[in-house]
Structures are given as structure tokens and as C-alpha cells.
Amino acid sequence: QVQLVESGGGLVQAGASLRLSCAASGRTFSSFAMGWFRQAPGKEREFVAAISRGGSSTVYADFVKGRFTISRDSAKNTGFLQMNSLKPEDTAVYSCAAKFSSGAYSYTQRGDYDYWGQGTQVTVSS
Which residues are paired to 4 by β-bridges? Predict the structure, then answer.
């Protein structure tokens, strides 16, 4: 079992930055690939970014490339999503997810992940 708890969300103006954290407990976090997803009101949950268990592989949704950066600190059992140049359309609940992984893979599908956090609200005003 892995428990995930997100933090760092909030209300910001367009153009601002936020750094989301995903604190993991339970099994060894370094054995898990990690991802971030978001869900806006009335919309399905969508992929944002993913990182492999060792951090060597990352992948991003096209709409965040160049603005968001995913990273992890396995020694601290924590993953991060640095979000810069935020736009009103980035408003959503952001959730982190974890998947046990034996290789340097990053996963982009919701169904790939075994564990989910509760999410943190990000609201960007214009």
C-alpha cells in the first residue's frame, strides 16, 4: 500500500507559479513511477505529467510543455509539480498517482496507476 497526500494548491492570478507536492508513505516510494492528473469541473480527469521511478524519464501533456516540470525526491518520499505561467484554464483539482514499476517507464493513462491522492485545488484567476 502507498498513501499519497498532495499539498501546495491555492488561488493565484494568471502568470503566477505554484509548486505542488505529493508526499508518499507506505511502501518504498523509489519503487514507484509517479504521475500528475487534473480534473476541471464538468470534465474528465486528464493526464498532466509523469516521471519514472528513477526520475530519468519524464513526459508531459502538450498543454503544459514548457510551463510545468515534474520531479521527485525519493529520499524524501516526495514528488513535485512546478507550475509556471499559470493560465485560467489550468484551474482544476490536481491529483498525484503512483504505480509500482520495475523499469524506467513513465505512464500517461489513468488506468496505469494503482494509488491516488485526494487532490489539491488550483484556481487561476484572470
Answer: 24
Spell out the SS3 assignment of 53-103: CCCCCEEECHHHCCCEEEEEEHHHCEEEEEECCCCHHHCEEEEEEEEECCC
The answer to whether the CB of 96 falls within 8 A of the CB of 36 is yes
64-106 pLDDT, tens per residue? Answer: 989 999 999 988 999 999 999 999 999 999 999 999 988 889 9
Q: Is 111 helix (H, G, I), strand (E, B) or coil?
A: helix
How far is the C-alpha of 3 from the C-alpha of 27, rounded, in Å? 9
- β partners of residue 74: none
Count of C-beta atoms within a 10 Å radius of residue 88: 11
Contacts of 84 (CB under 8 A, 6+ apart): 17, 67, 68, 69
